[in-house]
Write a structure and sequence with these properties.
The chain is mainly beta and 338 residues long. Helix content is 7%, strand content 47%. InterPro entries: PorP/SprF_Bacteroidetes (IPR019861).
């Protein structure tokens, strides 16, 4: 039995590197790319707060569930006019054709933020806490380029008490398991954006750290691996009041193949929006959102699983509540990068 316990703990240390990504998966990153790219820190004139929860693979015991909070804001007291940090006039629609046609890039500025993510999968819990910083450079009349960094700590916990065995015995291997470890964390990002166009690339978890939950030198197999993201999108107008934004994201986590997401959002005056997403060989997703007020917005998504997991799960739920503090222009706006 002890050998079997060591094997379980060794596999836990591997953190399913060979099967899936180590960081949480999101469907609504398209409404909050800041979760994946620190270069977005301070891209808006208001303080952007997001609180979210994801329940993945409903119907499967101990399936992943993720909670997060993100906050980012620009540094400085000045309000910048006619640029991505502001709106054309108080009360105007920030997605109007007029705003797009008269858009100018924001002056160079700084931004920062905070991200905390709690991810739980069976006996494993992971808490990532990062502070982010970005510098937004004015490249041309209608373009900005920002670069950002995220630095913080990752705490990985293992609940040995949740492991149950048929014979009811308590194995010494579980008593001696390493139940908590803290590792440094570092991420980098770059973001190019204008009135209708955005493109970005980022890397998370670039400090490769060894992971182990067994006090045995023979089981030192696990490690963290970098996560790479590349995304781009473009907004165009279907009519005077309706805009459409197609986007795509490529994600690479070794040794798995590249993951591809294709997304589409339709927005009505930026007050209501619906969308769809397709993740190759994994799922379809339906998304919807509403600006409840000039302060609060709410988005929801549901993933329809297309992989073999659809035999045992009905899909995944994700809900995000957003707040826009210091929204001095008092408009129904959300992050304009998607």
């Amino acid at each position: 039995m002890r050998k079997n316990i060591y094997l379980i703990l060794a596999l836990v240390s591997l953190n399913v590197v060979a099967l899936a990504q180590q960081r949480p998966q999101y469907t609504q990153y398209i409404f909050n790319n800041y979760l994946l790219n620190p270069a977005i820190s301070g891209i808006e004139n208001y303080t952007d707060i997001k609180v979210g929860y994801r329940k993945q693979w409903v119907g499967i015991n101990d399936a992943p569930q993720t909670s997060f909070v993100s906050v980012n804001w620009k540094l400085g007291d000045d309000y910048l006019w006619r640029n991505p940090l502001s709106l054309p006039d108080k009360g105007d629609n920030p997605m109007s054709r007029n705003y797009m046609q008269n858009y100018t890039a924001s002056p160079s500025h700084h931004g920062m933020g905070i991200i905390a993510v709690l991810d739980e999968v069976g006996p494993i819990s992971r808490l990532d806490a990062n502070i982010t910083y970005a510098y937004h450079l004015q490249m041309a009349n209608q373009l900005n380029l920002s670069v950002g960094v995220a630095a913080g700590l990752t705490r990985i916990g293992f609940d040995s008490g949740s492991l149950q065995f048929h014979d009811g015995e308590i194995e010494p291997a579980t008593r001696n398991a390493i139940e908590s470890q803290v590792k440094p964390d570092l991420g980098l990002g770059i973001w190019l954006y204008g009135a209708r166009f955005f493109a970005g690339a980022s890397a998370q978890q670039i400090l490769s750290q060894k992971l182990k939950f067994v006090n045995d030198p023979g089981f030192n197999l696990g490690k963290e691996v970098p996560h790479f993201f590349v995304t781009t999108g473009y907004r165009f107008f279907v009519s005077e009041e309706i805009s459409a934004t197609p986007s795509v994201m490529f994600k690479k986590v070794s040794p798995t193949p590249v993951s591809i997401d294709v997304n589409m959002k339709l927005s009505f005056k930026d007050r209501f929006w619906i969308g769809g997403s397709y993740r190759k060989d994994d799922s379809f997703a339906a998304l919807a959102g509403v600006n409840i007020s000039k302060l609060i917005n709410l988005t929801y998504s549901y993933d329809f699983v297309t992989s073999d997991l659809n035999r045992v799960t009905n899909g995944s739920h994700e809900i995000v509540l957003g707040f826009q503090l210091n929204n001095v222009y008092e408009v129904f706006s959300t992050t304009k990068m998607w």
